[in-house]
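Hi,

Apologies if this is the wrong queue. I'm a grad student, and the batch job for Carrier domain-containing protein from Adineta steineri produced an output file that my downstream script rejects. I'm not sure whether the problem is my script or the file. Here is the sequence I used:
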Amino acid sequence: RYCQSHLPSHMIPSIFIILDKFPLNANGKIDRKQLPSPDFSLSALLSSVKSDTPLNQFEERIHTIWCQVLHCDENHISGTASFFSVGGHSLRFIELYYRYQSLFNFNARSLSIGLFLQQPTIRQHAQLLQTLPSNDAQTIRWQSLVINEGKTSLN
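Support response: The file is valid. Your script probably expects a header line. Output copied below for reference.
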């Protein structure tokens, strides 16, 4: 809770290991080789954030996208779990954002990636995406970069 109140969600460690005391070497310094290794397996991360609250149909769609981006087959990601607490990192988050853009047809001006970073859960992403107008697929006017033939002054 302290980290949540003082750090942005993407900077909160996903794993904490509680130790009674730090292992010390002969010089009285912390012996890093004797520290326990954290379990970074996705199943361990997902099992720590299970939720009994069911997801609605739109949230299920977001959940499926998360599982594709995180390369997980399990359905244990809670609707209230942060993307970063279930094994996500910044590059995966960018991939997630671009998947949202392609599936829901919006551009970065409509919903910036910063909004998704500030609200990093499935439920919050679903709320953000549902705020999009139904016809948000704004077409970008493409202009030719080919110079038309004709006389032009180069001075």
